[in-house]
Design brief:
single chain; 188 residues; alpha/beta; TIM Barrel; globular
Length: 188
């Protein structure tokens, strides 16, 4: 577990509804993003495993969303939610929504914190946490913090000022008319 290191910076999340996930992962790798999360909700396990194995060959940290078995079979890390059970035996990150959750991440190698500015990418009972709570989470977390939720070129300065190790982005990339330019802007 200790050998997993999440590099700082842009943490892109693929969006299958807006394009081919492997092409999206390739684009993130080409542009030098820190990591990519394969978030393919509802995909059959075999299809997700094939994607994970193909993405593993890319020069980028690849993380599987939610499916511990697929991540383990592909030799990758996994990202799990607050309610997804006990800490898995493989490297993982965990979603958090409060400073108290951030302060107690279990054996997670990193945490995601949010939604910082709200999100349209998934349903959540959590309201926007804001940059001040993000800064508090960064202060109390014993592991790197990745901000998620409403991250865009406009909101990124507040995320960076709060001390986030990384920023997870979906919509600002894949809903952009030029995803490559959006990735570059989010890495400046």
């Amino acid at each position: 577990m200790s050998s997993f290191v999440l590099p700082p910076g842009l943490y892109g999340i693929v969006e299958p509804a807006l394009g081919d996930p492997l092409d999206q992962a390739r684009l993130l790798a080409e542009e030098g993003a820190a990591a990519v999360q394969l978030r393919c909700k509802g995909w059959p396990r075999e299809r997700l495993l094939a994607l994970a194995l193909a993405a593993r060959a890319l020069p980028i940290v690849v993380i599987v969303n939610d499916d511990v078995a697929v991540a383990e079979a592909a030799g990758l890390a996994v990202h799990i939610g607050q309610d997804d059970g006990i800490d898995p035996a493989i490297p993982f990150g965990r979603s958090t929504h409060t400073p108290a959750q951030a302060a107690a991440p279990g054996r997670a190698a990193y945490i995601g914190f949010g939604p910082v500015f709200g999100t349209a990418s998934k349903e959540t009972p959590w309201s926007a946490r804001g940059a001040a709570l993000l800064a508090e989470a960064v202060r109390v977390a014993p592991v790197p913090v990745v901000a998620i939720g409403g991250i865009s070129v406009e909101t990124l300065p507040a995320v960076r000022a709060a001390g986030a190790h990384g920023w997870a982005v979906i919509g600002a990339i894949w809903r952009s008319p030029d995803p490559r330019a959006a990735i570059r802007a989010l890495m400046r």
